[in-house]
Write a structure and sequence with these properties.
Length: 154
């Protein structure tokens, strides 16, 4: 599911599709956590699990960017997401190479870093929502407002 050409207009539908991609990568993230704890993974295992996570992240990114087609903020968001995906890709490649080399302490550090970066990417993607800017139909992304009791936007 690439999300190409879908142009999701309903914010609830957009969030549902993003959450579906997030749920699809949870088993791979769990496998990576197990490899980090036990050290019983090969470079092939790590590469397969990280590729699965990256595929779901890219699919969610495509959905977000399709939703922004025609927006002036699309290119800025595309660049921001591409930089985060690039950083995640580098960590994934290093983790697979480290697993092949058998360096367990370095592998643990890289897998924990990959997990943290992937979760941060999901938070960014799920934390964006569309809002109409008027009759022109131009859409933009705004951060999700904080929950009640939060001091984040005080």
């Amino acid at each position: 599911m690439s999300g190409t050409g879908t142009g999701v207009a309903d914010p609830a539908l957009l969030e549902d599709r993003l959450r579906r991609h997030h749920r699809r990568c949870l088993p791979a993230l769990s496998r990576l956590r197990l490899v980090a704890r036990s050290g019983l993974g090969t470079g092939v295992d790590v590469r397969a699990a990280t590729a699965e996570v990256m595929a779901e992240l890219r699919a969610a990114e495509a959905i977000l960017l399709d939703t922004l087609s025609g927006s002036v903020r699309r290119e800025a968001l595309a660049h921001f997401l591409a930089c985060r995906v690039n950083r995640l890709t580098i960590v994934a490649e290093h983790a697979a190479a480290t697993a092949s080399a058998g360096d367990l302490p370095a592998l643990r550090r890289l897998l924990y870093q990959f997990h943290a970066l992937a979760e941060a990417m999901w938070k960014v993607q799920l934390g964006l929502r569309t809002t109409d800017l008027g009759p022109s139909g131009v859409r933009t992304f705004l951060p999700t407002p904080p929950r009640s009791g939060s001091r984040r936007w005080v």
